[in-house]
Amino acid sequence: MTTALVHYTAAAASDLGRKRSSNEDAFGYSVERGVYVACDGMGGAAAGEVASSLAVDELMHRLADDSAPASPRAQAEQAIAAANQAIYSRAQRNQRLSGMGTTMVMLIAEERRAWFMNIGDSRGYRLRDRHLEQITLDHSHVEEQVRTGRMTRTDAERSPFRNIITRALGTQSQVAPDIFELEVEPGDLFLLCSDGLTRELSDPLLESLLSIDLPLHDLCARLVNAANQAGGHDNITCLLVRAGA
């Protein structure tokens, strides 16, 4: 029995939001390479922009290397380590960029296998049969409190410590991503996004917006518009990847 091939399509959008004067988010993707990444920089406007852009550039460059003999997962892990070192080294050399870092969520897709990798609170979701599931786990103070039962979901949403990230790319000399391996089915829709989207829109609302049968570019626009209408307090980035037969 042969296994049907899966073909991917993608679209992305990034928006300043309604409150920020600069966009510290960055994204990149290559359908041909099966690489999709979104980052949310931090450390001040200039530093945040440098960190997120450097991460995306380094990851896309490393994962475009045909000579790499490693498996897709291993190659992605090596690329993340290289991106972390690139950001960390740049910050060490430039006092103005000291302490900069970025969150990261990345999807590596190879036929019917895929891997989500994340650092920080940029998220990866899968919509299957109109049911949305968050695949990644946030590396943030409040989410870790919720997972250990020390804080309720309601308290977490009201907490003044929501912005505290417990793991970031580039702030330390080494960092490890969480990795989630998935089996892909035709029709699956993957969402990679910064917290500027998820802080404004609940998972049930995301699910209803993504369940509408529209081209990916239009779905991205709907997500950004909805987040801005809900307040747009941060930069908003979403990247959608659809698996088709």
Tell me the layout of helices and strands.
Layout: E1 7-15, E2 25-30, E3 35-42, H1 45-62, H2 72-93, E4 101-110, E5 113-119, E6 123-128, E7 131-134, H3 141-147, H4 153-158, E8 178-183, E9 189-193, H5 195-198, H6 203-210, H7 216-229, E10 236-244
Helix pairs in contact: 1-2
Name the poorly predicted regions: none
CATH topology descriptor:
Phosphatase 2c, domain 1
Strand runs, count: 10
Residue share in helix: 25-40%
Distance between the ends: 16 Å
Element-level helix/strand string? EEEHHEEEEHHEEHHHE
Shape: globular
Q: Which CATH first-tier class would you pick? A: Alpha Beta
Q: How many domain regions?
A: 1
Specify Rg, calculated over alpha carbons. 17 Å
- For the largest sheet, list the strands in their spatial order: 1-10-9-6-7
Mean pLDDT: 93
Determine the number of helices (DSSP H or I, runs of at least 4 residues). Answer: 7
Biggest sheet layout? 5 strands, antiparallel
> Judging by the overall fold, what is the CATH architecture?
4-Layer Sandwich
Give the percentage of residues in beta strands.
25-35%
CATH superfamily: PPM-type phosphatase domain
Q: Which structural class fits the helix and strand makeup?
A: alpha+beta
Q: What are the key terms here?
A:
Phosphatase 2c, domain 1; 5-stranded antiparallel β-sheet; 245 residues; 32% helix; globular; alpha+beta; 10 strands
Structure description:
- A hairpin with a 2-residue loop joins strand 6 and strand 7 (131-134).
- This protein has seven helices and ten strands.
- It has a single domain (7-244), classed as Phosphatase 2c, domain 1.
- It is globular.
- The chain has a five-stranded antiparallel β-sheet with strand order 1-10-9-6-7.
- The model has no long low-confidence stretch (mean pLDDT 93).
- It has 245 residues and is of the alpha+beta class.
- 32% of the residues lie in helices and 29% in strands.
